[in-house]
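Summary of Year 1 activities. Much of the first year was spent building the evaluation harness for sequence design. The harness presents a backbone, in tokenized form, and records the residue chosen at every position. We chose the following record to illustrate the format because it has been used consistently in internal testing since the harness was completed.
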């Protein structure tokens, strides 16, 4: 709740004025029954036509003024709620952006999307209705009771019993429904997860003809959501009928008590009508309050879920020293670059994923000098990609030390490291927009000349020129208007455009044919100068010309050396080479 108040503080005027204008509207509304009573007791009883016209004009004036106040209040409430929702959503997105891979893996992408969209919208709607009704409804309820007692204390006694009973009913249902709405939101997370998996994996679903199974799976999750929503809806739906029953019993009591007093001459007919009108006002406001309570229950449940994400502290905060940029005289960090200083060194590094009982990496030790090319090879699940993710601090190692130019990466600011380290992941990802904008992700002020140079090195210039749009070529969402190999080459060019000190290619040429892959590796070796390059691949041909090759086997280093050294002495590397040679021979014979 404190966090929500912090989002309302920047707009104190509109936040305060919304409920105040609603109270002003309610004040005018409370005078209406008294005017009606006077019209009955004076105008109608005395057959006074001018008086009735005067009181009628007063009623119209009260309605017009109240309506204008209501519109003003709703405008201020909506503006305050939308401003708070926008700020909360922006801050939540920024906060999620600080998460390391560990937090994203633990929480889940679908849950994060749901909380940033649906949950924030629920909070925004709750704020809007809260500002409009949280003062108005109680004010009208209590005001109507006070006004009823000013009309006649004895006839207004049913009000003193009715209102407490109503409050008990409302808050009892609130206490029961709030936990249930939290369960509904959690089930909504599951529905979103299934939806997201099916939309992203639609080609795989169709390739394996699993549409019917996925429909059944989606049906089970939506059925669970339906049942939970129906259950909590039934409980919330009790509010309106219970409210009507209690209020109508109150009206009966007023009519019975007031009727007897009218018969005795202690009360006028207009006063009885005023009392009934006040009871009807209470009914109307409590129905609104009941609906507000239901909405607030959902909003509070959503607010708790949003707060839970805000409370997650990133395991790798964006703090630390800033790496020096060559030629700018900044030596606050990574001061090395002296002759003989490794660009990257692993010292007995181990890593365990959150929630896992066993280490994924064990005892990794090697070093890479500036300008060297390091090949990393191993079977599926051997830890190659995990090792690559440790260098730019997507994860922090759980044991040992990783150094960049002699300095522990844990002492360096992650965002600053990633300006000097570019990684091209296995899955090629491009964004909708122009090719130029995509290339400038690596370097915001990259010139067209620098971009074209990166495209040349990445072997992407030819197909870009063939499109006829140059750097103004528009890419669709996910690069759907490009082939897999074209997307991979663009992601490599994007990394090269940033001119990093360390380039990591994580199996990022798997969709390329052997000739293009060979030209790519040759161009990178000839054009990257003092850049340290890591090539992670399952192909021996992709890493055989590297200065050193690290062989991975079940998360452990199984060998380190040149292609010739490993081929003559390393059993694991020999098996990999033999299996790929056998595959080539089988393909040739076929």
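For this record, the design step produced the sequence shown next.
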């Amino acid at each position: 709740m404190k966090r929500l108040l912090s989002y309302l503080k920047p707009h104190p005027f509109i936040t305060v004025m919304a409920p105040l204008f609603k109270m002003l509207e309610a004040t005018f509304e409370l005078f209406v029954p008294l005017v009606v009573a006077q019209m009955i007791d004076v105008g109608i009883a005395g057959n006074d036509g001018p008086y009735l016209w005067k009181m009628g004009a007063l009623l119209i004036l009260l309605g017009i003024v109240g309506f204008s106040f209501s519109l003003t209040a709703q405008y201020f409430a909506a503006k305050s709620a939308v401003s708070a929702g926008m700020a909360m959503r922006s801050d939540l997105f920024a906060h999620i952006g600080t998460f390391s891979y560990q937090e994203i893996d633990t929480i889940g992408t679908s849950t994060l999307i749901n909380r940033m969209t649906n949950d924030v919208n629920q909070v925004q709607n709750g704020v809007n209705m809260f500002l409009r009704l949280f003062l108005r409804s109680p004010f009208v309820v209590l005001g109507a009771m006070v006004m009823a007692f000013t009309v006649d204390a004895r006839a207004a006694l049913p009000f003193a019993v009715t209102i407490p009973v109503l409050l008990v009913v409302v808050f009892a249902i609130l206490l029961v429904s709030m936990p249930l709405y939290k369960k509904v939101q959690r089930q909504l997370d599951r529905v979103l997860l299934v939806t997201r998996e099916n939309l992203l994996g639609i080609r795989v679903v169709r390739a394996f003809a699993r549409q019917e199974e996925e429909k059944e799976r989606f049906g089970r999750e939506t059925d669970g959501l339906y049942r939970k929503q129906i259950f909590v809806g039934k409980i919330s739906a009790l509010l309106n009928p219970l409210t009507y029953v209690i209020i109508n019993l109150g009206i009966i009591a007023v009519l019975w008590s007031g009727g007897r007093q009218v018969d005795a001459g202690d009360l006028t007919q207009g006063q009885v009508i005023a009392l009934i009108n006040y009871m009807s006002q209470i009914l109307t406001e409590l129905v609104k309050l009941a609906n507000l309570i239901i909405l607030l229950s959902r909003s509070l449940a959503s607010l708790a879920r949003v707060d839970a994400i805000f409370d997650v502290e990133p395991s790798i905060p964006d703090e630390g020293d800033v790496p020096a940029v060559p030629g700018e005289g900044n030596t606050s960090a990574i001061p090395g670059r002296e002759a003989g200083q490794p660009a990257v060194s692993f010292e007995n590094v181990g890593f365990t994923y959150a929630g896992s009982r066993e280490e994924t990496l064990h005892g990794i030790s090697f070093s890479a000098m500036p300008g060297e090319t390091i090949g990393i090879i191993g079977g599926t699940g051997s830890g190659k990609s995990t090792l690559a993710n440790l260098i730019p601090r997507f994860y922090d190692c759980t044991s040992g030390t990783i150094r960049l130019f002699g300095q522990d990466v844990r002492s360096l600011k992650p965002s600053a490291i990633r300006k000097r380290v570019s990684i091209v992941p296995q899955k090629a990802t491009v964004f909708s927009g122009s090719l130029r904008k995509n290339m400038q992700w690596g370097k915001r002020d990259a010139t067209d000349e620098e971009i074209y140079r990166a495209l040349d090195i990445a072997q992407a210039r030819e197909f870009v020129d063939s499109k006829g749009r140059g750097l103004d070529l528009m890419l669709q969402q996910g690069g759907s208007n490009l082939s897999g190999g074209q997307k991979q080459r663009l992601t490599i060019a994007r990394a090269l455009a940033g001119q990093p000190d360390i380039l990591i290619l994580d199996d990022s040429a798997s969709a390329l044919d052997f000739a293009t892959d060979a030209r790519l590796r040759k161009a990178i070796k000839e054009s990257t100068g003092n850049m340290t390059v890591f090539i992670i691949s399952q192909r021996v041909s992709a890493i055989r010309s590297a200065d050193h090759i690290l062989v991975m086997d079940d998360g452990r280093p199984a060998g380190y050396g040149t292609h010739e050294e490993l081929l003559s002495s390393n059993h694991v590397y020999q098996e990999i080479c033999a299996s790929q040679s056998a595959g080539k021979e089988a393909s040739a014979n076929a």
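The longest helix spans residues 49-97. Quantitative recovery figures across the full test set are reported in Table 2.
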